[in-house]
Design goal:
Residues 67-180 form the SET domain. The protein is an alpha+beta fold and 210 residues long. Helices cover 40% and strands 14% of the residues. It has helices at residues 15-24, 28-40, 59-79, 91-104, 117-127, 186-197, 204-207; strands at 2-5, 8-10, 105-108, 133-136, 144-145, 151-155, 161-165, 176-177. The structure holds S-adenosylmethionine. S-adenosylmethionine is lined by residues 53, 103-104, 141-142, 144-146, 197-199, 201-203.
């Protein structure tokens, strides 16, 4: 049962959407679904992610999304939610949210149990796949990427995020994190950032061809 939908518990059968996503290896629709539940329950507004930068979506992704959206909408309908609780759930809302989640979701990595673990956690999180989940964090979403970052996000208990500096920071210097494994060469990094994140990196390291 889904708790807290205006105090009402509803049993929702997610199996069609789960099958659709797991057979295609999709993870972001689960996050849109979670946000939709939060909106229905009144925890957040439907426009809560509008402040974040959206990804540019390709035609293929938009077509894929139509199916995901229809499955999500019909799942809520079948579960018997009142129409007025789900009026925000339009195809355009789904596209807007997914576009923002794609650019701004963080992979939650190893959880450090003590402050001493933070640095080793920072190193491990870019060298191995230690992901335990994905989440959008509002403030960290405003950090730009750098292939030679001066800070790194680490995760503590309960998936709390903490920013760790990796070297001394000059006054006025922009705090930048890395979105990818920066041990790759410049061409591989540019390819991943262009295809996966939709931008061409203009950090100093890339500009110098390193
Ligand atoms: C998570 S957002 C970062 C915050 C964003 N700049 C903003 O103002 O909300 C990621 C977007 O920022 C831009 N960006 C981040 N790092 C960049 C970089 N190194 N080079 C060029 N654009 C970058 C890209 O447009 C990317 O899609």
């Amino acid at each position: 049962p889904v708790q807290g939908f205006h105090g009402i518990q509803k049993k929702v059968d997610w199996s069609l959407l789960d099958d659709h996503c797991s057979s295609r290896g999709l993870k972001y629709p689960y996050m849109v679904r979670r946000l939709a539940c939060m909106v229905i329950s009144g925890d957040v507004g439907a426009d809560c992610l509008d402040i974040l930068q959206p990804a540019q979506l390709h035609q293929g992704t938009l077509i894929e999304m139509e199916e995901e959206f229809e499955l999500l909408k019909s799942t809520f309908r079948k579960a018997g939610f009142q129409e007025e609780l789900t009026t925000f759930l339009t195809k355009q809302w789904y596209i807007n949210i997914l576009a923002r989640i794609r650019v701004n979701a963080f992979r939650i990595e190893l959880v450090a149990s003590s402050y001493e673990d933070l640095l080793s956690s920072a190193v491990a999180s870019v060298t191995c796949d230690a992901s335990v989940g994905n989440a959008v964090y509002m403030l960290p979403s405003f950090y730009n990427h750098d292939c030679d970052p001066n800070t790194h996000i680490v995760w503590l208990e309960n998936a709390d995020a903490k920013l760790k500096t990796l070297r001394d920071i000059d006054e006025g210097e922009e705090l930048r994190i890395c979105y990818i494994d920066t041990s790759m060469d410049v061409n591989a990094r540019q390819k991943i950032l262009t295809e996966g994140f939709g931008f061409q990196c203009r950090c100093q390291r890339c500009l110098s061809g390193d």
